[in-house]
């Protein structure tokens, strides 16, 4: 009679190691980091929106040439498609912030003042001047323009003249741009408003994100795939007796063999 195998010999109870990386949690010590906070108080943190088209070191060399500042500035690649600029003078840093948004190689750049916070959403704000088009003339009012800005993001300021209504808003650059909005009035009426972003460079005209063109849009490809699948299912339901190669050629039913 053959010997029975043990559980170990059968492989039961053996823990199989996986290739998943081990993530270890480390408790940070209490630190007096006031000196480090002061050291980085005149620092801007930036991030590219398209890492395939924007090379960090080229950006670090090119961007300061657009600023016309007086003091020194030092740029460093800090990884994860991010970079930092440390300024010698506060007025130079503020001048750069006031003249945002910036772009490099025809793609937008996220640029914010450094803050001593740890947040996955910290580096996301990008300010735009947004021109409001289609607003009814009898609602051409400062309060109306400010209300639109507040709904889009963090409103910084606005301008309203007899010809132009625009608002400067810091929006989340990691989310799709809002190009249209419907204003609902107390009268029950509605108006479709168009929003035009000034100094906006390459972006996706389909999903309105800053990170790619419509030709590389995953949302567009998914939508086209769904539309194609639904179209095929509709044709099969509408023309059940057609060939696969040519849906307009009907297949004759064969006579039953005697």
UniProtKB/TrEMBL annotation:
Domain Zinc knuckle CX2CX4HX4C: 172-218
Domain of life: Eukaryota
Occurrences of domain DUF4283 (ranges): 39-119
Protein name per its UniProtKB record: Uncharacterized protein LOC130495609
Organism per entry: Raphanus sativus
Gene: LOC130505705
């Amino acid at each position: 009679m053959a010997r029975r195998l043990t559980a170990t010999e059968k492989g039961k109870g053996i823990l199989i190691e996986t290739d998943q990386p081990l993530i270890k949690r480390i408790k940070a010590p209490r630190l007096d980091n006031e000196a480090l906070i002061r050291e980085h108080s005149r620092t801007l943190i930036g991030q590219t929106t398209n890492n395939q088209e924007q090379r960090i070191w080229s950006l670090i060399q090119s961007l300061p040439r657009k600023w016309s500042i007086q003091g020194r500035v030092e740029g460093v690649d800090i990884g994860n498609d991010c970079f930092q600029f440390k300024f010698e003078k506060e007025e130079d840093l503020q001048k750069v912030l006031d003249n945002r948004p910036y772009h490099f190689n025809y793609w937008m750049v996220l640029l914010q003042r450094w803050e001593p916070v740890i947040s996955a959403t910290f580096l996301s704000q990008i300010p735009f001047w947004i021109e409001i088009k289609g607003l009814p003339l009898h609602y051409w009012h400062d309060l109306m323009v400010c209300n639109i800005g507040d709904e889009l993001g963090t409103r910084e300021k606005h301008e309203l003249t007899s010809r132009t209504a625009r608002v400067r808003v810091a929006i989340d650059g990691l989310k799709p741009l809002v190009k249209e909005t419907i204003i609902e009035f107390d009268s029950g009426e509605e108006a479709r408003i168009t929003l035009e972003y000034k100094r906006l460079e390459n972006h996706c005209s389909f999903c309105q994100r800053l990170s790619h063109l419509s030709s590389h849009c995953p949302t567009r490809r998914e939508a086209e795939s769904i539309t194609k699948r639904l179209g095929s299912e509709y044709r099969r339901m509408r023309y059940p007796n057609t060939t696969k190669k040519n849906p307009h050629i009907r297949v004759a039913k064969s006579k039953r063999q005697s």
